[in-house]
Amino acid sequence: MNAPLAKTRPELVCPAGTPAAFRTAVEAGADAIYCGFRDETNARNFPGLNFDRSELAQSIRFAHDHGTKVLVAINTFPRAGATALWHKAVADAEDAGADAVILADLGLVAHAAVKHPNLRRHLSVQAAASNPDAIRFWVETFGIRRVVLPRILSVAEIAAINAEITCETEVFVFGGLCVMAEGRCSLSSHATGKSPNMQGVCSPPSHVVYKEEGDDLVAKLGAYTIDRTPKGVAAPYPTLCKGRFTAGTYQGHVFEDPVSLDAAMLIPPLVDAGVTAFKIEGRQRSRAYTQAVVAAFRKAVDDHLAGRPIAADMTRRLAEGQTTTAGAYKKTWR
Amino acid sequence: MSETRPALVLGPLLFNWPVDKWADFLARIADEADVDRVHVGEVVCSKREPFYADRLPEVIERLQRGGKTVVVDTLALVTLKRERALVADLAGLDGVEIEINDFTPLASLPADRRFAVSPLVNVYDEGTLGWLAARGAWSVCLPPELPFASIATMAAAGTALGVETQIFAFGRLPLAISGRCYHARIQGLAKDSCRYVCAEDPDGLDVDTLDGEAFLAINGVQTLSQSCVAALDEAERLIAAGVGAFRLSPQDCDMVAVAAAFRARLAGTIDGTEARAAIVAAGLKPPLGVPMMSGSWPATAGAPRA
């Protein structure tokens, strides 16, 4: 089966953790902004981040004045007995004028489909819909219009999925890289009692301790040593799956090296694979970072659409000293 | 308590055991284990499935002759065409129950076919539980990270809906699933050329911190807790809350004895300390830990209970 042509001009979907970052991303050329409420309903529930109701409404007005869409992430799994908080988040997003909500929980998607039929529903990466059958289930049952694909698929697999489904797909192109199927990982829960699915946090700063031991700096998450570096060497943030451990005779990064995703050079084949939207991770990042990354990807997408090659390494310097990877988009990653 | 006796459920085996060991294990379970239901089928890695696919019918028959209800599990992470076909085949299987490990099977499962839901499916709230019940779910094993308060709310909701709620009561906790095979990665191999190195670790391979703390275990594309949880002290509380079934995930030890310890504990004839002693005597190798629901998590995670 031939890869289908791109259905539309690809949409650049950019993160905003604060109203200031939101305006910056809009002005830097985002086609759409995604953001969330300041509570446990969204998967970047960090102190000092996110939007209250009036900030969201004002930001959406600003975005719409600039021709930019706003997608509201309500992508944690509701706490049993407290689903009303998540239902209210969906209702408030619609009232504030959101162009779509990004949802992960089946019960919440079902609720939104019945109570907010005119509100566009995107399926969060946290729902881990990883093949055409699963995607068809979500589309046919709940009218999902776009699915954010898990970061475990190769470009060829994404093309094959798009050839079989009727909804749009969105893929991550830059930023933090989960090595586990998103929404199906409770490693953080195991170490800290706080998880992406329930509290909207992973390896939370509240549980990070740096400790000097002899000539080493030890980075701990909860009670566990995640990494150890000689004093004077930059200590990595102890994200659980990027830590160094011992397994049998192996010692090192069992799960993933401390790398971040950069798929800028894969924009052409991903467009050919029928991807509708490119997503940049990082609602927790600074305004300066947001500006630089959004502008670089705006240029990369525009260059590709104009038939110009994408400049190699244009985005590499934005990774803030981290090594980058094309992740699972290259099949050898597995 | 006999009227509301909670069900004991065993399996599915998450690890890659040699096919003869797997068949002998389930034959002994069929003949000797005091469990109500046995789960079979490959959940973790589709590359393992061809090794025992042709022996599955005889194993299922043996279990049924032993008076066990047999439940066949689907794969947890489905990406390849062959994996999709496998899932669709299972969804069409007659004469056995089926348990879904993601939502892929719901694309092909007939509307009148009932199904169970595994702890690897995200059922966190009563909205999701209610929708699944209406679609045909009759038993839902809750995600292991749920705290007790959520379990109680879900068990009450399940009771009202006529759906059995189940908890992951014994075994290394399934914590994550990935497209990448870690067993292959640490050997310098890729998933496609893995040489089945996961078969060397019948309980999974221990992952310790650089300071030697017991932390995690890997099992191919799956990551588990290194400690083996046992929901023993919580039994009365869980039963009173309406939890209808306790799941025992096989580890490389005498699972007949583990099942007997749980049965006695659920009947109230032994206490948690006695049950733990019986489990250790069954030859369990991973450290015995407490489940997340206990509330003392994560302070005691990975450490044997005092």
General description of the model:
- The complex is a heterodimer of chains A (334) and B (306).
- With 334 residues, chain A is an alpha/beta fold.
- Chain A has two domains: 242 residues, Aldolase class I (TIM Barrel), CATH 3.20.20.70; 66 residues, no CATH class.
- Helix content of chain A is 30%, strand content 23%.
- Chain A contains ten helices and 16 strands.
- An eight-stranded parallel beta barrel of chain A has the order 1-2-3-4-5-6-7-15, surrounded by six helices. A three-stranded antiparallel beta sheet of chain A has the order 9-10-11, with no helix packed on it. Chain A has a two-stranded antiparallel sheet with strand order 12-13.
- The longest helix of chain A is centred in the C-terminal third of the chain and has 19 residues.
- Chain B has a single domain, classed as Phosphoenolpyruvate-binding domains (TIM Barrel, Alpha-Beta Barrel).
- Chain B contains ten helices and twelve strands.
- In chain B, helix 1 runs parallel beside helix 3 and helix 5 packs parallel to helix 6.
- At the A-B interface, helix 4, helix 5, strand 8, helix 7 and strand 11 of A face helix 4, helix 5, helix 6, strand 7 and helix 7 of B.
What's the short version?
Chain A is an alpha/beta fold and 334 residues long. Helices cover 30% and strands 23% of the residues of chain A. Chain A has 2 domains: 11-177 and 259-333, TIM Barrel (Alpha-Beta Barrel), CATH 3.20.20.70; 187-252, no CATH class.
The CATH class of the largest domain in chain A, by name, is: Alpha Beta
For the record, what is the CATH homologous superfamily label of chain B?
Phosphoenolpyruvate-binding domains
Helix content estimate of chain B: 25-40%
Average per-residue pLDDT of chain B, rounded, comes to 93
> What is the CA–CA distance across the termini of chain A?
24 Å
Chains forming the largest contact: A-B, 71 and 70 residues
Inertia-based shape of chain A: globular
**Span between termini of chain B:** 30 Å
